[in-house]
Design a protein that fits this description.
Layout lengths: L1 H39 L13 E3 L5 E3 L7 E7 L8 H12 L4 E7 L10 H9 L20 H7 L14 E4 L5 E5 L10 H8 L1
Parallel strand pairs: 3-4
Antiparallel strand pairs: 1-2, 3-5, 5-6
Length: 202
């Protein structure tokens, strides 16, 4: 009986082993191809949105924009000594009008066009004259190689017209932090088409 088993094992070994080996090699080859494909295909980075950034506010405190997640956002590069500075009134007006419905204005003062005060303290005091209640951030560059990462995100997207040309350009973003529309300086914040676009997103 033991001799028969040995013969069976021996015969089976000679008959089956080559098939097993061939199947194993095929599986190993396929697995190798899959591994190569997975490693060679670049992983797409998570898509950027406004809320992943941070910025210092007008008082110097670092603020995560994540706190505005879920709101419609209007980002504006502001200046205190510009011909468009009167738009602070319109910005405050639309902010108060739609705040309760999940809308916020974020003001980013900049001296890129030499029309802003030298200190954040002066900027804040100036804005108090307009009774500004929406969030204001620290003065900083909004164009060029040193621009804040928020404006790198806003201005380097395809089809959004590149660098900021002047003060009070406006960037409208949806509740997911995606850029929807960009408006040049001459667009008053409390007039159409910007006003109607805000209402549409709300």
């Amino acid at each position: 009986k033991s001799l028969s088993l040995c013969l069976i094992r021996s015969v089976s070994g000679f008959v089956v082993y080559p098939k097993l080996r061939r199947n194993f090699m095929i599986k190993k080859f396929v697995l190798g191809l899959l591994t190569f494909w997975v490693l060679s295909v670049p992983f797409a980075p998570a898509s950027e949105n406004l809320f992943q950034f941070q910025a210092p506010d007008i008082d110097g405190e670092n603020v995560s924009l994540r706190q505005f997640e879920g709101q419609v956002v209007l980002v504006v590069n502001t200046a205190s000594k510009c011909g468009y500075t009167y738009q602070y009134e319109g910005l405050e007006k639309v902010y108060r009008q739609f705040k309760a419905r999940g809308f916020v204005v974020l003001g980013f003062p900049s001296d890129d066009f030499w029309q802003e005060y030298n200190s954040n303290k002066e900027i804040k005091e100036f804005c108090e004259g307009f009774q500004i209640s929406f969030p204001l951030f620290a003065e900083g560059p909004v164009r060029g190689s040193e621009k804040h990462e928020v404006f790198r995100f806003l201005t380097e997207q395809s089809g959004m017209d590149g660098e900021i040309r002047w003060n009070f350009e406006k960037f409208l973003l949806d509740r997911d932090g995606n850029l929807v529309r960009r408006y040049r300086s001459g667009q008053d914040p409390d007039e159409d088409p910007l006003l109607s676009q805000i209402e549409t997103l709300l």
